[in-house]
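Dear colleague,

Thank you for sharing your sequence with our group. We've completed the structure prediction you requested, and as agreed, I am returning the results in plain text so they can be pasted directly into your records. Please verify that the sequence below matches your submission; if there's any discrepancy, let me know and we will rerun it promptly.
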Amino acid sequence: MLRGREASRIAAVSSEPKPSATVVPIRDAGSALEILLLQRSSRRGDKLGAWVFPGGKIEAADRAGAASDWLDAARLAAVRETHEEASLALEAESLVPISRWITPEVTPKRFDTWFFLGPVGPDGEVTVDGGEICDHRWLSPGAALEAYRSGEIQLAPPQFVTLTWLEAHRSVGDALRELGREPIMVFHPRICRTSEGACILYPGDAGYEDWEIERPGARHRLWALGEGWRYERD
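Please find the predicted structure tokens below.
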């Protein structure tokens, strides 16, 4: 059994996160919702990189072209990155913000990333460059999660959690309507080590403020155990 007293705080490394943006491309496929995942090429050259959504850093041109704030700049960056990585043309106005992920302080390379849902029409055709991106798949959220659990694909926490959210929705309209009306959820993880792995606490969890995984109350966390990720949210 995991005990809060066994959880250790990770020493923080001070670094400023880079503003970034990510799009979760979604489309209707018959009676199901599908999402686009891209596979990043491995730096080792064996093409076994993680599966991600299109995205990248907000560039100076994105900031200069934004109408007002960082959210507008993130929309422009998201559109640009999706075209560069997947050859999909999206409209900035069509993007629906759903979350914001801030990399933990312990991570050497940190990002502050806006996540958007991006509806793709039936004519949207994906082409990857074969360099930074080596493959792509359209999958239902449930199929993507099953592929992760079987070890077929690798997913980082932001992708895993987002797919878990989308698994409950059966159409683009449903996902945009339901997730778009929620307040934008901010994920600023606090990683607590345990004897069996780690518990990643997110704002809203009862134990978030004092890094106490056994504190009674609301739950918003991701377990990193031997069998993989497990998301818990009241």
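Summary note from our side: Residues 1-13 have pLDDT under 50 and may be disordered.

Kind regards,
the structure core
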